[in-house]
């Protein structure tokens, strides 16, 4: 799915106005761009105000599926940012949007390996589900002859980050995928690590997805970055041309690749996980169009060029 | 690691004596060859007696790492089979044998995602370990700023089938592999499914290994089938030429591939997971030298040719 077209080396962003004027929509990754853990990154409110004052559409995209759109809305509010639910695209929402886009039958069920965000979005979209946090305490007694029953109406298994991951869930998801004819295998993302706390990197959704890949020998359909599903959905919903989008993120292999896969302009910010050394390393094959320290450089680079 | 050389189509075994006379060692997979779950397969004791009476060396190999050699010995005894511990090679033992083969330092520790068999074999070999079943009830509280401490002396993470698999273990193993310089990542096997009970297929060691591959983006060193580590070890330990070995198993992608990767003769038995239809399907690229219904065909095919 990922395309690794070689791009020319990234240029430092020098004239922010030129970039801003060249697009109509900015898609922002959240962690490492808007906030770090629970702290807002310096200058973000003023930057978003500037972009809104210029009539730009703002969209916030995250691979984190533990919260719903509504729950993310509260996080923005707590940080003092005026962002509406409709501007937020979390991979939890992307799961429900994907099921709608393929007319997934409402009489079928979704088995969830993941947290509350996915359940809330499925519920809002009117889908029946099972699994999720409540299966986190279930155990399997492997007595001779024991058989785990599973629901034959499960038509999709959705896998996202799950701190209550266990063998019960692996087996339930595996049985559904292997034994229910046509059962879909959908992943919110395959991120190796995630930033659940500021203190260290935590094993990400890629570990839960990897477990199911190992036991089913099937590849999932990924709805989060770097797959283009969310980009296609956004372009379609808002009627935007992809060349009129600038994707802004702190990760090369998700955010920047996501932007490039979608045919958008790309801006890497160094306020998250990627350092300038990593960007410029000969081992790095993913080059954004531009890079800068943080999004509030839009303010100072603007001032410098006026 | 796996070699997929195309072999000519498998032949039905017609003259067992000829095969028996052509080798000095038989390596048997256990589940689906010697027993199914907790039941001995018909004619096995007489077949093993016949092979011993002809002076053949017998070796029993299993990817299952939940038991130690000694614990497997008891299973053979319970089923009425006279097999010594030294003839049994489980992937739990292979882990310890591998660490010995590379002179893994005794002052380093091994973090185990797996069950008792691995712990027992590490203990017998004199290695320090942590993890295993006792981490099965550990939970992570993802409070802001929380950091999981890990032991910097962990020099190897071993991953095998683990019914008590959880996020704590995934994160501990991931931290060790990502942050401890030179830390090894060793898998007992990557089997998609395993036969913990007769009633259904269960997600196998491949799911635990897949989770760690997903979060570390590293590939493990596999000590079980179809990797040739155990074959090399056996050949070296007993001074056997690999062409003098016949590998007998019920699975194409582990047993038969294991035999072929090692340069041995191969015999598929249809008493386990593989049907004649699967063997002869155009999609199957793995062809053993011979196939037969069950190992006790050695007795009747012998009688027919005398």
From TrEMBL, chains A, B:
<dbReference type="InterPro" id="IPR006349">
    <property type="entry name" value="PGP_euk"/>
</dbReference>
<keyword id="KW-0809">Transit peptide</keyword>
<dbReference type="InterPro" id="IPR023214">
    <property type="entry name" value="HAD_sf"/>
</dbReference>
<feature type="binding site">
    <location>
        <position position="29"/>
    </location>
    <ligand>
        <name>Mg(2+)</name>
    </ligand>
</feature>
<feature type="binding site">
    <location>
        <position position="250"/>
    </location>
    <ligand>
        <name>Mg(2+)</name>
    </ligand>
</feature>
<keyword id="KW-0460">Magnesium</keyword>
<keyword id="KW-0479">Metal-binding</keyword>
<dbReference type="GO" id="GO:0009507">
    <property type="term" value="C:chloroplast"/>
</dbReference>
<keyword id="KW-0378">Hydrolase</keyword>
<feature type="active site" description="Nucleophile">
    <location>
        <position position="29"/>
    </location>
</feature>
<keyword id="KW-0150">Chloroplast</keyword>
<dbReference type="InterPro" id="IPR036412">
    <property type="entry name" value="HAD-like_sf"/>
</dbReference>
<keyword id="KW-0934">Plastid</keyword>
<keyword id="KW-0007">Acetylation</keyword>
<comment type="similarity">
    <text>Belongs to the HAD-like hydrolase superfamily. CbbY/CbbZ/Gph/YieH family.</text>
</comment>
<dbReference type="Pfam" id="PF13242">
    <property type="entry name" value="Hydrolase_like"/>
</dbReference>
<dbReference type="GO" id="GO:0008967">
    <property type="term" value="F:phosphoglycolate phosphatase activity"/>
</dbReference>
<dbReference type="InterPro" id="IPR006357">
    <property type="entry name" value="HAD-SF_hydro_IIA"/>
</dbReference>
<feature type="active site" description="Proton donor">
    <location>
        <position position="31"/>
    </location>
</feature>
<dbReference type="GO" id="GO:0046872">
    <property type="term" value="F:metal ion binding"/>
</dbReference>
<keyword id="KW-0597">Phosphoprotein</keyword>
<feature type="binding site">
    <location>
        <position position="31"/>
    </location>
    <ligand>
        <name>Mg(2+)</name>
    </ligand>
</feature>
<protein>
    <recommendedName>
        <fullName>Phosphoglycolate phosphatase</fullName>
        <ecNumber>3.1.3.18</ecNumber>
    </recommendedName>
</protein>
<dbReference type="GO" id="GO:0009853">
    <property type="term" value="P:photorespiration"/>
</dbReference>
<feature type="binding site">
    <location>
        <position position="225"/>
    </location>
    <ligand>
        <name>substrate</name>
    </ligand>
</feature>
<keyword id="KW-0601">Photorespiration</keyword>
<comment type="function">
    <text>Photorespiratory enzyme that dephosphorylates the 2-phosphoglycolate produced by the RuBisCO oxygenation reaction.</text>
</comment>
<dbReference type="Pfam" id="PF13344">
    <property type="entry name" value="Hydrolase_6"/>
</dbReference>
């Amino acid at each position: 799915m990922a395309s690794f077209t070689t791009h020319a080396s990234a240029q430092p962003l020098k004239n922010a106005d030129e970039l801003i004027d060249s697009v109509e929509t900015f898609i922002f990754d959240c962690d490492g761009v808007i906030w770090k853990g629970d702290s807002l990154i310096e200058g973000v409110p003023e930057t978003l105000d500037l972009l809104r004052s210029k009539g730009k559409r703002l969209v916030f995209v995250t691979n984190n599926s533990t919260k719903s759109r509504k729950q993310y809305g509260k996080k923005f509010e707590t940080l003092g940012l005026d962002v509406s639910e409709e501007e937020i695209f979390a991979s939890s929402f992307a799961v429900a949007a994907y099921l709608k886009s393929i007319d997934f039958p409402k009489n079928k069920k979704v088995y969830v390996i993941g947290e509350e965000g996915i359940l809330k979005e499925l519920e809002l979209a009117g889908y029946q589900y099972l699994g999720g946090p409540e299966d986190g305490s279930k155990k399997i007694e492997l007595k001779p002859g024991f058989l785990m029953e599973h629901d034959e109406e499960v038509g999709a298994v959705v896998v996202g980050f799950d701190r209550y991951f266990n063998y019960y869930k692996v087996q339930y998801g595996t049985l559904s995928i292997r034994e229910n004819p046509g059962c879909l295998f959908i992943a919110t993302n395959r991120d190796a690590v995630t930033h659940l706390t500021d203190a260290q990197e935590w094993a990400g959704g890629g570990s839960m997805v990897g477990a199911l890949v190992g036991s089913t020998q099937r590849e999932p359909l990924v709805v989060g970055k770097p797959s283009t599903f969310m980009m296609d959905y956004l372009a379609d919903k808002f009627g935007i041309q992809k060349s009129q989008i600038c994707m802004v993120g702190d990760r090369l292999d998700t955010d920047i690749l996501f932007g490039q896969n979608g045919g958008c302009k790309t801006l890497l910010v160094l306020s998250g996980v990627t350092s300038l050394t990593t960007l410029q390393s000969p081992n790095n094959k993913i080059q954004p169009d531009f890079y800068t320290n943080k999004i509030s450089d839009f303010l100072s680079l603007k001032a410098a060029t006026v």
